[in-house]
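Note to self: the last two entries modelled the partners one at a time, which told us nothing about the interface. This time every component goes in together.
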Amino acid sequence: EAGVAQSPRYKIIEKRQSVAFWCNPISGHATLYWYQQILGQGPKLLIQFQNNGVVDDSQLPKDRFSAERLKGVDSTLKIQPAKLEDSAVYLCASSYSGTSGGSYNEQFFGPGTRLTVL
Amino acid sequence: DAKTTQPNSMESNEEEPVHLPCNHSTISGTDYIHWYRQLPSQGPEYVIHGLTSNVNNRMASLAIAEDRKSSTLILHRATLRDAAVYYCILGYYKLSFGAGTTVTVRA
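The predicted structure of the combined assembly is written out below.
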């Protein structure tokens, strides 16, 4: 089966510019996650969607970051305006269901988008 | 989120077993123990998970202490492809990654 697709793979922008990342999860996966991974650290959850609704966005810097998942399939993450500290790899992941009781649902990660802010 | 403690790094020889420890003394009764790994320049991938009993799958084994305050991921025969950062994570469905253990495999 096809994995999680992300684009672009690399992006270089100047600070204060805007940028958008796209993610297409595995077909049939209801839950979609965006993570930020700064060099040398583990991934940090930014936002979790269940279908097209937000389940958890407690760590999303809402003054500059936004995300949407229209129609409950693919998703975009936007940063506007970007800061130097936003340089990181942005990972998208999906799972069959994120919060259902009983069955375990592993997360499948995409290859990530490496963002460099100059 | 309950916290885990892992060594920063470990080295192993190819075709030898690797035992990766994880301490989690504040684990709650409903916390799963998840292990994910991240190969260089890739996103993390699922390895194994458990709740109370030891678990085996095609990738690895997970040994869980009786009091659940520690666990060990066992790679039975390390290959060069197993060189990665291994993350031990507690929780139910939400994954909170720490810094993990960087595993180096020598040929």
